[in-house]
Amino acid sequence: MTWLITGGAGYIGSHVVHEMAVRETVVVLDDLSTGRAERLPQDVPLVVGSVLDRELLDRVLTDHAVTGIVHIAGKKRVAESVERPLHYYRENVDGLRILLEAAAAAGVGRFLFSSSAAVYGMPDVDLVTEETPCRPLSPYGETKLAGEWMVAAAGQAYGMATASLRYFNVAGAASAELGDEGVFNLVPMVFERLTGNEAPRVFGNDYPTPDGTCVRDYVHVEDIASAHAAAARRLVRDPAARLVLNIGRGEGASVAEMIDIILDVTGRNDLAPVVEGRRAGDPARVVASVGAIGKELDWAARHDIRTMIESAWAGWCLRHGRPVSP
Ligand code: WQD
User: Fold this and answer.
1) Which atom of ligand 1 is nearest to the CA of 286?
2) Which of 114, 130, 162, 244 is within CB 3.0–4.6 Å of 155 for a Cys-Cys bond?
3) CA distances from 276 to 30, 208, 224, 270 (A)
4) Cα-flanking dihedrals φ and ψ of residue 29, to 5°?
5) How far, in Å, from the CA of 279 to the mean position of ligand 1?
6) Kind and range of the H or E run holding 81
7) Given pLDDT bands bounded at 50, 70 and 90, which one contains residue 97?
8) What is the model's pTM?
9) Which atom of ligand 1 is the closest one to the Cα of 276?
10) Burial class for 275, CB neighbours closer than 10 Å (0-12, 13-18, 19+)
11) Which residue puts its alpha carbon closest to atom 3 of ligand 1?
12) Residue nearest atom 14 of ligand 1, based on CA coordinates
């Protein structure tokens, strides 16, 4: 097998590349809008370009004799998607359609798609299963759900094995060099506050949860990567696979609990969190049921929250030229 990994120079994509390149032949396509070539292993070829460029896709699929695709490239900022919905539909939906057309024309038989827990919106259940109704609340979530539909329909029509993997809240890094460079999620946002000697912010403590703060399912990016490798192996074994799977730990952690661990890991217990108003659109609780992925891929997450935070902090310190404390 030769796998094309789109978005392979990004935060999540580069972890998937490092994991899959150990056993498989891998080529990366990335427009480097947020990715960086330095994230890739030396021997993995990088093609700089967009999935919207059909001619380029045809050339890459032929030149590298690609037999499977892992599509991770895409826009992923919920708030930005509300401001620029058509940009998100273009990049995430048009981009995927063009990639699927090229894949079908080239006879690619395996297709793995990065989806998101954002497809569920505000699920009203303790554990979210893949059968929980999908009611996305943002254009971002809509593009992921539309993407899943397109992937399954194309797989059916053109004889491709497919998997859509719904990531829950991704954090951590396999090494400091591969850390998340965006400051758009809880862990890096708290790091940024601490680095500026400011108290971390809690967006609402009046939710119907045990401590009043929102509960999420945080999963280490290395676990996300190993789930992709497991899904890719399954698609190779099972050419008729049509999988939709949650990737999470199956355990919730509240914002207050997360901040407690972050303060401990960073040695900043002096900066007690401050409670602010709720952020619009935040569900109280989103935690994955991981029964399906355990059964289908014989996979389970291995890393705990402390490991995620320690590894993310090491990356933050490296990028900001400061010693890892305490
Ligand atoms: C987690 C919790 C905040 C910062 C989003 C997307 C989702 C996925 C991951 C891509 C929330 C609270 C945050 C802070 C806080 N993305 N918070 N203080 O919103 O669960 O998920 O990113 O695929 O689709 O929706 O993640 O990390 O932004 O927030 O209290 O300084 O932390 O309100 O409850 P979210 P997040």
Assistant:
1) 20
2) 162
3) 38, 16, 31, 19
4) -115, 125
5) 9
6) helix 78-83
7) very high
8) 0.98
9) 30
10) middle
11) 203
12) 186
- Top-tier CATH class for 2-170+219-247: alpha beta
Q: What percent of the chain has pLDDT over 90?
A: 98
**DSSP per-residue letters across 172-206:** --SSGGG------SHHHHHHHHHHTT---EEE-S-
Predicted confidence (pLDDT) at residue 325 exceeds the cutoff of 80? no
What CATH homologous superfamily does 172-216+250-320 map to?
A: UDP-galactose 4-epimerase, domain 1 (3.90.25.10)
Active-site residue identified among 140, 167, 207, 218 = 140
Give which of 148, 190, 170, 162 is closest to 12, Cα–Cα.
170
Closest ligand 1 atom to residue 213 Cα is 34
140 is catalytic: yes
Q: Where in the chain is the domain with CATH 3.40.50.720?
A: 2-170+219-247
pLDDT tier at 44, thresholds 50, 70, 90? very high
| CATH 3.90.25.10-classified regions of the chain | 172-216+250-320
Tokens of 270: 């002096």
> 81: Cβ below 6 Å to ligand 1?
no
